[in-house]
Amino acid sequence: MRSRVWWPTTAVVLGLLAAGCGDGDGEDTGSGRDARGGAAVSASGGFPVSVTDCAGAGTTFAAAPKRIVTANAAGLELLLRLGAGDKVAGTGFPPGKGTLPAGLDARAQQVKVLGRTVIAKEKLLGSGADLYLDTFASMSGMGGGAGGGMGDAPTEAEFRAAGIRHVFLKSTACAADRKSPVTDLSAVEDDITTLGAVTGTSARAKELVAGMRKTVDAVRGAVGSTAPDARPTYFFFDYDAGTKQPVAVCNRQVAHAVITLAGARNVFAGCDGDFKQVGWEDVIAKDPDWIQLGVRDRGGEAANNAAFDEARRWLRDNPATKGLKAVKEGHFVRIGSERTTIAGVSNADTVRDIAKILYPGKVG
């Protein structure tokens, strides 16, 4: 039986960092906010650091937080990559053993689990955290407060009373409301840079961003000469979101940028937003050249391969999809969901890995 993995309908995932509105000392420091609205860092390269939310409201950090609680494994992974894992006091939605990159997995397993799903309000407020890194931003259709419509969540006043800064991972908080499609990873880079500034790990953030840009630039150089209308069409099949009604990746979701940078054309590029439920008739009408088998990480290579095989069999055996061009030609991309749809460092690697499959011999 296929394991059911939580995934919200209006999916929210990792991205451009933003502090929650209404913090008590949220005045703008005027210390050099960058042109894209990222962190404003003091001239000395240290603190104070100011960050803004989607509406431009700011808050200031006089020093790096000491006890961070993360809403889920997405925020946890980014902090670990930045070398700020020693500041993490707990997490919700903990990563399964083996689901994070090898160098991070052991450290992640040591983090205290405050909730197997959304952290209970009382536990979060009593956690002793001075920063809550929230992946589940308040969005239309999600309700208010941390975690959106996912149960009782603290208000901003309650966060302040508990001495907790409330900071969103904003590629999700702002994704659905972006004014135009996302076609690059600049928002992810801003996310990493800003969180690096907040945690005092800016040097490491700079290294991570530079590595991402090097990887993506190499792909652009290899496939950039391919005319837009000659690029293969591509469907991200979110198998774990359910097969009765597929969930499409729309043009405000980071996966759309990943697909575009890899030299493909997202068949649902005309969908404004992050994710949207569609019908199989819509997928059939698009008849994609390639289908990514977007399954969640099962915690090991054998389990992941079994999940990819299961998703492929479903497409081949289902009367509605077995006639699709990609299915008949066996054009399946076996790359996991998290590294494609959750904004982070691994997005750049996914760009390269997709391009290697779609353009064999061109991408190293």
Describe what this molecule looks like in 3D.
The protein is an alpha/beta fold and 364 residues long. The chain folds into 2 domains: 17-209, Nitrogenase molybdenum iron protein domain (Rossmann fold), CATH 3.40.50; 228-358, 3-Layer(aba) Sandwich (Rossmann fold). Helices cover 34% and strands 14% of the residues. The chain is built from 13 helices and 15 strands. The chain has helices at 73-82, 102-109, 121-125, 156-161, 170-173, 186-199, 202-223, 254-261, 280-286, 301-317, 325-329, 338-341, 346-358; strands at 17-19, 40-41, 49-52, 58-61, 68-70, 88-92, 113-115, 131-134, 165-169, 233-237, 247-249, 265-266, 275-277, 290-293, 332-333. Strands 1-9-8-5-6-7 form a 6-stranded mixed sheet. Helix 7 (202-223) runs parallel beside helix 13 (346-358). The model is unreliable at 1-44 and 139-150 (pLDDT under 50).
CATH architecture heading of the largest domain: 3-Layer(aba) Sandwich
Q: Tell me the CATH superfamily of the largest domain.
A: Nitrogenase molybdenum iron protein domain
- Ends apart, CA distance between termini: 37 Å
Q: What is the fold-level CATH name, i.e. the topology of the largest domain?
A: Rossmann fold
Question: SSE order in H/E notation?
Answer: EEEEEHEHEHEHEHHHEEHEEHEHHEHH
What's the pLDDT, averaged over the residues? 83
Structural class: alpha/beta
Strand order, largest beta sheet:
1-9-8-5-6-7
Largest sheet: 6 strands, mixed
Estimate the strand proportion: 5-15%
Number of helices: 13
Shape descriptor: globular
Give the beta-strand count. Answer: 15
How many domain modules? 2
Helix content: 25-40%
